[in-house]
């Protein structure tokens, strides 16, 4: 119903927006149709403890199962959704689908597995976003401590005050809060530093730089030390090779995510994968 209301508000793709739609190869109408036909779903990518190899959780990543074009990654639809007021719809689809799936990997891992969900700062600026997230998690009988909300400062927040209010409420309830893409221009997070984030996620470009340049390595090591002093968990994303893994271990990073461990997988494949992995480590 909320989506219907939004669609009725939409004017056809305007010049500036049209360019971004065309560049992404999908028109706004196609994206809206995809939302209405329930073609968006959550894939899952595991996160693993560097010291032991155990899985500590997984991140839900949006995919569009297009009837003709196959699996479409977020690069093709997040920006147009943010630009056209549709990102909230994706946020709710992802929260509902990911949270509903979480019980399926239950106690498989020895560590209490956390589920990470990406939130656009645009959605976090909505009134009572926190209340609605709390409700979804409660309905699925999960504990807030099992959920980590990943925040990237890529979209201009409509209302920074609201973002902070929602985030502090969620944190007080016990949700984990993660600063995503740390090390890119998007993660200044000055405003958000007022919130007690629980996790720092190192962007994969930062990991790649640290492999190549001594200076990047020093900066990364200091960032990891800073996070530790702030009692934040550290996670490196984009871990693709054994040398990446070894360097992160050496620099004291706690967790890793990346193709070296596994690519994002469909929900069903993930449940099997995690069992095989935990049996092996
Ligand atoms: P992110 O949250 O930083 O997610 C990590 C991205 O890195 C994912 O791309 C993942 O597939 C990719 N990745 C993981 N390991 C590796 C690796 O070893 N090598 C390489 N080259 N890439 C790796 P993906 O799935 O295409 O998502 C891109 C971005 O889209 C995400 O970045 C996130 O910012 C956004 N996104 C994804 N799902 C959602 C969602 O449900 N809501 C919102 N608001 N944003 C989302
Ligand atoms: Mg993320
Ligand atoms: Mg990231
Ligand atoms: Mg990223």
UniProtKB/TrEMBL annotation:
Keyword Nucleotide-binding on this protein?
Answer: no
Start and end residues of each EAL domain: 24-278
| Key words, A-Z | Phosphoprotein
In terms of superkingdom, the source organism counts as: Bacteria
A single BP term in Gene Ontology: phosphorelay signal transduction system
Key word Membrane present: no
GO MF annotation list = cyclic-guanylate-specific phosphodiesterase activity
Task: Report the protein name in the record.
Answer: EAL domain-containing protein
Q: Which residues of the full protein are shown?
A: 121 to 401 of 401
